[in-house]
Amino acid sequence: MYMMAQDMGLDFIGRPSGMAMSTPPPSFGALTGMWAAMMAAMMLPTMVPTLRAYEDLIISANGSQTGWLGVLGGYFIIWIGFSVMIAALQLGLLYFGIIDALGIATSPWIAGSLLVLVGLFQFTQAKETCHGVCHSPMGYFLSNWRTGFFGGGRMGLGLGIYCVGCCWGFMILGFVGGVMSLLWMGLATVFMIIEKLPQVGRYVTRPMGFMLIIAGFGTYIWMLTMGGT
Q: Measured at the alpha carbon of residue 75, what is the angle toward residues 39 and 88, in degrees to the nearest 5?
């Protein structure tokens, strides 16, 4: 991401710097790679303890090394698949003028709505379910146990989907502060990691939701005060 920002003449917060007068949009391949890197940061806090949980089942149950590789492969498929989808979404939003070449919403109303949407999602049953699976992969294994490489792959796909279901909102928030902003996306990644920490994760999900909703309505109020459209 840093190399892409440098090539596009952007500073640390994703804005043109120096002599950069215009910022051409990145290619689909470059965007997919960028999102894949961010997906790696998002999934790693969940994937590592999940693979360790499976290793325990190799010893205590009928898990296997091929099954372990299957779980990893399932995660990888979801990882790359989501990266392709959100890269395509970004180009589509750019085409229709909803975001600019830097990945920033062209209207503060859109930015505020995204903040409120993601904030509300923090309070839903879907969020709670996905977050619970991320925190307790062993429970998922025991309820959905499959043997062998393909069985592991099937479980990896399911766990990867739950992982994306838990954190898609923080990725979408990239369109608020700019997906090319190392500072903004770094902050979103930190939030995702904190939320997945076993010791504190369950205690920060809803406070994060409140913060996002307040920020969204703050954006609305600011726009009304400034008389903006």
A: 45
Tokens 């840093």 sit on residue: 2
Neighbours of 96 (CB within 10 A): 9
User: Residue 31: which residues within 8 A CB-CB, separation 6 or more?
Assistant: 87, 90, 91
CA distance 140 to 146: 11
Cα gap 130→33, rounded to integer Å? 25
> Taking Cα atoms as reference points, which of 190, 219, 205, 182 lies closest to residue 105?
219
d(CA 111, CA 41): 24
| Residue count of the chain | 229
Closest CA to 88 of 28, 164, 35: 28
CA–CA separation, 180 vs 11, rounded Å?
9
**CA dihedral of residues 80, 85, 86, 89 (deg, nearest 10):** 160
Please tell me what DSSP assigns to residue 27. Answer: P
Predicted confidence (pLDDT) per residue in 114-151, tens digit: 999 999 999 999 999 998 888 888 889 989 999 999 99
